[in-house]
Amino acid sequence: MVSSKEWSLNSSPIILPLAFQTWERNAIYVALFLAEYSGAKIYVTHVLEGEEDHTLKEQMLKDIGDASERFGVKHEYNEIEPERKPPSVELISKSIVARAEELDAQAIVMAAHREGLFRELLGRVSDHVARYSRRRVILVESPREGVLIPRMPRRILVPVLKEFHPDPFIVAAALTSSASSPEVEMIAAKVIPLPPTLPLEAVATLNELKKEEKEFSLFTSMAISSLGRFFNPKILPVRDIGSDVASFVRERGIDLIVMHSSRRTGFYSFFTRDEYEIVSRSPCVVLVTLPDTRSI
Fold first, then answer.
1. Around Cβ 146, how many Cβ atoms within 10 Å?
2. What range defines the domain where residue 216 resides?
3. 94 and 123 co-located in one domain
4. Which of 54, 66, 180, 219 has its Cα between 20 and 30 A from that of 271?
5. CA–CA separation, 120 vs 112, rounded Å?
6. Cβ(6)–Cβ(166) under 8 Å?
7. In whole angstroms, what is the distance from residue 68 CA to residue 206 CA?
8. Helices 25-38 and 166-175 meet at what angle, rounded to 10?
9. What is the pTM of this model?
10. 159 with 194, same domain?
11. What value does the mean pLDDT take over residues 174-196?
12. Mutual orientation of helices 273-281 and 241-252 as an angle, nearest 10°?
């Protein structure tokens, strides 16, 4: 039941793992907003690999310090000395998960980016962290280097595939907490796959879709009342989930997608096929929220 889930963040620490790469800037942005929203402290965490780019590291730490001051957020930099160097993907990920446990963190906010098929099949560091951690994980998936979340997103899409979960709505609310409501459009879209043979003109008259629309509007009203932010509910019928959601994002000028994954495992890492299709085809940054499973 949706009503049994908590619609909030707390002031426990947020872990921000960094390898000091340029594509991690979106994760820094998200961690700062979540920390400001919840009153949490950020622990910037770096697993030493043996060969460090000190120039980029020093600049990024300075940028984080300056931004933390502007946001009024406390932060601390920690280094982890792994058992061996260079550490494997598994060792890096387990070190990050262990630090989150040690600090009793409420969430790990971690950058992820598209890589080659071989690496994605084996699993990126972010994928392994998502597998091992039982705490909330927020993956910041960038489609390619240089794609940044706007300083103030104007349109945010929360696609709902099967399970309606509060976390994407909480994150969307946090990212727009300093903006006035009229300036930000937050769309909650229930994604409904259609049979390939169904004529498009018949979609509007389907009783099943009307029922879905009524129920989804009720769920969305719970998010509005719990978070004090308006979400525009929408039914989004699709034939090809990845392609059609990507087209919707382009047509509506969506700046950011925030979606939920329930950590299923298989050929698509911890994603289901449909989740993977949305993330891999999105033209904008996608935040993927993975639930805290400690109480399950």
1. 9
2. 155-290
3. yes
4. 219
5. 11
6. yes
7. 50
8. 90
9. 0.91
10. yes
11. 81
12. 40
Q: Are 160 and 189 in contact (CB under 8 A)?
A: yes
Return d(Cα 231, Cα 190) in angstroms, integer. Answer: 12
Instruction: Name beta bridge partners: 275.
Output: none
Mean pLDDT in the chain?
Answer: 87
Instruction: Tell me how crowded residue 149 is: count the other CB atoms within 10 A of its CB.
Output: 21
Residue owning tokens 């993330």: 279
* Rounded-to-integer distance, Cα 102 and Cα 15, Å: 11
pLDDT at 200: 59
Q: What percent of the chain has pLDDT over 70?
A: 86
- The H or E element containing residue 11 is none
Residue 7 in domain: no
CATH label of the domain that carries residue 264:
3.40.50.620
Residue 220 tokens, joined: 């969305």
Count of domains forming the chain: 2
What 54-58 contacts at long range (C-beta under 8 Å, 24+ apart), as own/partner pairs, is 56/20, 56/21, 56/22, 57/20
Cα distance between residue 17 and residue 87, in whole Å:
15
Tell me the two tokens of residue 191: 């994604």
